[in-house]
UniProtKB/TrEMBL annotation:
Pfam families reported in the protein's UniProt record: Fe-S_biosyn
Gene3D superfamilies reported in the protein's UniProt record: HesB-like domain
GO biological process: iron-sulfur cluster assembly; protein maturation
InterPro entries, sorted: ATAP, ATAP_core_dom, HesB-like_dom_sf
GO cellular component terms given for this protein: mitochondrion
Domain Core: 29-127
Family annotation (SUPFAM superfamilies): HesB-like domain (SSF89360)
Organism, as annotated: Pristionchus pacificus
GO MF assignments: 2 iron, 2 sulfur cluster binding; 4 iron, 4 sulfur cluster binding; iron ion binding
Protein name: Core domain-containing protein
Domain of life assignment: Eukaryota
Amino acid sequence: MSLGRFANSLRFLPSLRLYSSRLIPQGDLILTKAAKQRLDEILSPEEKLRIEVEGGGCAGFEYKIRLDTTVAPDDLVVKDGEKELVVVDEMSLGYIRGSTVDYVEDLMKASFRVLANPLAEKGCSCGTSFAMK
């Protein structure tokens, strides 16, 4: 196989693509001490907490929070030292800019939650959906 044909075949291997992580500007997403501590306890070296905003939910938009091992080209990250903790795509960050991410344990469940979203007008009682101002 020629070098040119080999190089062309690499473009079909997305795992070989390298992206430099862009940092979320300070203050655009705030992690509480409890959130950082819980992430340190549960994240494997390649995992990050992904926060997404999707249409739907009882108030209009819905927070989707899950663990993820991928970082896409349009993702931004929150770092603690050298460790990447949280990943948010650019569109979702536009809906949660200035919010606080907390880890909360109560009688019903233990979960990460987006709190104090300055762009939200109202939310549902469970805290997973919101309406924009």
